[in-house]
Amino acid sequence: SVFYALPAEHRQKTWLFEFDRRWETGNSRFKFFDYRAPIDELPEDLRGACDLIIADPPHINVPTVERYVEIMGALRQDSSTRLVLTSAEDNEQWVASE
pLDDT tens for residues 54-78? Predict the structure, then answer.
């Protein structure tokens, strides 16, 4: 996980949005995240507050990527927010088409 690779001082300014609750134990920066949930279930204090978003969708297909675009739009601070979408190399054609 990128989150756990960060130095401790950076993790204190970072949030981990994750579906897998095993990452929650001992992590005060964990936020349960289901990309299928309504946007208004995102933490209100983080909507419009993120200046860097790194996303690793569970599936690379048009509906999932479109949903992640909506979510990143809700979280991003402004048009200068840096967005990074990660995936397996064999999914490049799906991501590039979006």
Answer: 998 888 788 988 999 999 999 999 9
Looking at the chain, the number of H-run helices and the number of E-run strands are 4, 4
Q: What share of the chain is helix, strand, coil (3-state, %, to 5)?
A: 40, 15, 45
pTM: 0.81
Q: How buried is residue 68: exposed, middle or buried, by Cβ count under 10 Å (0-12/13-18/19+)?
A: buried
- Specify the 3-state DSSP secondary structure of 48: coil
Q: Whole-angstrom Cα distance, residue 66 to residue 44?
A: 21
Q: pLDDT tens for residues 32-41?
A: 999 999 999 9
Strands 30-32, 16-18: parallel, antiparallel or unpaired by DSSP? parallel
